Sequence to fold (481 residues):
Amino acid sequence: MMDYAQIFAFLTNLLFVMTLGWYLITNLQWYDYKIERVILRHHKTWWHIVYFIIPFIAYYATGKFFAIFFYFAVLPSMIMWHRKLDKKLVLTWRVKRFLILLVSLTLFQDILCTLKAACVIYGVFMPLVISYIGSWAIEKFLFEAYKRQAKTKIASMKDLTIICVTGSYGKTSMKNFIAQVLSNRFKVYATPRSVNTLGGIIRDVNESLPEQTQVYVCEAGAREVGDIYAIAQLLNPQIVVVGKVGPQHLEYFKTLDRIKRTKLEIIHSNRLKKAFIHTSVTDEPHEKVTFFGDDIRNLTATLDGIDFDTDINGETHHFHTLVLGAFQTININAAILIAVEMGMKSDEIVSAVENLKSVEHRLERIDAGGKIILDDGYNGNIDGMLEGVRLCSLHEGRKVIVTPGLVESTEELNSELIRAINNVFDIVIVTGHLNRQQFERELSVHQTIMLGDKSQMVKVLGEVTRAGDIILFANDAPNFI
Fold:
């Protein structure tokens, strides 16, 4: 029969293991469920020390006094950590399966230890390790099953044209512009939001791709060599686009050449008919490749939209769109080329471009309270951020920027961004800690605000901005970065 002390120790162990498990699965979800990324590429490794390693060591070192440490230090700090996250754990079925497996194994271990009186102290390490390995095995099995299901569905849609888009910059915008233009003639479906991993695409095909779709526009992203190849082998797209490539995600790929080679994996399709490749990627000719990026002429980009000229079937046409950002002409150019490839007429294409809508959080203009807000929160590349800065320079009133700087980039590129900011903005609000020291060293503007906690942003903006200001939200980084 268990006494009160045993019951208390039993419950404390169960709650402690689940607390560590919650921390582990949250970090795994952020880093695409790759344990090596959580351990080796985490942006705040000190979190592991504070919220995992120290409590783990204390559990075995403090003995019967651990409960005091746990209930008055570990658990409250973990709750506060979770509440301050701006990207909290999403309870997907994968997460639920892990947590169910963890609680089941912990209960089994603790009950067995109690009945057999075999344990001096209830274990922590084994339930976590076995749950991780078991969860990985379950997900691997389910992944392969879902992958076969997705391939079967794609094969059954005989008349489906698949267009796959990749690149370092503007993949989501390009995907959306292609889908918007082609939807004037075809039944088009595009992957939602920024879904661009193999697992996300498999799920999208199985759960959301309508059977009557004529054109499926898919975005392909990568963190490792081989990621885009795997997507190409799943979808076998007939048309592919490789947009502009630059030094993005260098911490994963190390060199620009590796980035280019990874992006070009998209051409490895058994059904490839046409590849549109930006001139920043390669100039190696191929019968199925059309290069683009130098086709735009007479470009004007202001806070009221973009005007430019380009050719369709040898004839020059003028285009106007309310979409902001000169760099967007690369993405619109790709959409025009694909529309021509798909048989759309020039007047259809001109009209479709004129009616393009901005992609949410990508240089999206919002007029509110006498202020102009440029929401570029989902843009994290140097070209796009510099264009946002340039557009703000056209405004006659005060200029405010809210930014964490560049993420997964280099100190040199952040310096280039800071120099541009110094020349344009009156107020700079730096969010997060990732580039804080560099901004403190290099910024030279009228007012600088370092904002470690983004929950205070609305309050701060209300205090420092006024009607007539333009406010640029340039990039956004979750606070685990």
